[in-house]
User: Fold these one by one.
Assistant:
Number 1:
Amino acid sequence: MSFLDFKPVVILGDYVARPIDWVQYRFFSDKYGALVFPSDPAGYVPAEPYESVYSLCLGIYCGEQLAGWQYSHAQEGGILMRDTGLLPEHQGRGVYSAFLPHLLTHFAKSGFALVVSRHRFQNNAAIIPKLKAGFVIVGTEIEAGVSYVKLARSSGSAKLPSGNNGRM
């Protein structure tokens, strides 16, 4: 499967998520990552390509204006939500909370029963909506002096990961 399987979806009001290619994702994340994650002590580093049978790059737009992005890929029996960002002027409006159920539905329809992510401890804008959507905390990590919390959501018979081995 590829990003072509994702159909554009209205998230909230004028906000729409639609597929973009890897080049567009990297352009957006390179250009705006530091604005979205200004407190990252290590500096924002966009995700690198991951050899996977399934990957998804989405642009989140308010009308025709870029509001954010999302990149996920298959890994170790599940899907890893690798990088999601909303530009500051679009944060705090409920966009991520409204977007998350659409994304999780797409993953389930694509055959992924396990969805995993990791976030900086202070990233409540991502952690709280995920906990409300049924994710659980499965571990913590420290990498380059930055503390992360690992979250996972399982549907069906998928087993939640455990431990702090840095993998799903």
Number 2:
Amino acid sequence: MIQGSLRVYPDAKQFTFTSNHYGADTGFIALYYWSPDHITQIQAHYESFALPFIIDQWDEIPITAYHPYGKSLDSMPSSEHLRCGYKQRYACVNVHLYSVDEHGQDNIPDLSQRPNRAYVAPDLTALTETTGTVIVHSYYRYHE
């Protein structure tokens, strides 16, 4: 199972998740974590093993991608688009970062509203912290 291979930021606490059928034999999952650390510290941690962060074109927040088993990501469309594709089941993990300090608790992006996503929205009200950083790991998997 991929969750054991996720590179979750040290001491980050999961506060919600969502998963659903995407299409054919593919499912999608997004795991939402919170850390009290500043977004720049978390970004530096992920960039030590993942692709450099860019600003996501849909969410306008930092996004990166990495292979959960340490392999290289050779099938990313371009350096301007780091979203993992549905054909990369278990082979690509996206990480979005959202600064609660800068943008507030009420504006956490709901990734279920993005194009080509077919899953139930997460319970973003589960986050009770008013500072820190939200870290979202998302990936495609085989639908059971």
Number 3:
Amino acid sequence: MFEQQVVVTETIETSMDDGLFTSLIDVLTKELSIYTELKEFLIQEIHKSTTLPSVNQINENNILKENIILKSRILEEVRINILRKIARKFDVDESTVKLMSLINHAKEDKKKIIYKIHNDILNMAKDVIILNNENKQKIDVYNNNINVLLDLLSSVIGQSKGYHNDGKIDKILNNGRLLHAKG
């Protein structure tokens, strides 16, 4: 009878562990889809950057990006909570929980799935970082061009030395004197 209880307890614990890792796989899969959505959105935004968008389009794009980022933050919190539950289950310190340290407690089939999703997420994150850097470089070039244009316009519009606002030449106070500056 005691052996039956041990078998039943082990079966329940195994299914509970399996359920936690299944939940983890679901969350990781959703995170991957969110990062894929973000990457596709950034690619579309890059292609649209050749045209001048309206303020409403810019606001809509920012709202969509904020929603995608918010979804990823929520999923990150859910993932962390699941990892903490798994850590508690296997008596691992919750403060230093990492996905790769807990994956050893999963069954082989779950391990393979988690490794694959983890690698896919890492690759997707690298792609998003590359796209962000490309966008940042474009923005830096645009900002530099705007600053040069503003400097040019201020020099053209601004009052130059020796001229009135109407374009007439100022009278020189030292009219007739020779001026000499050393250097």
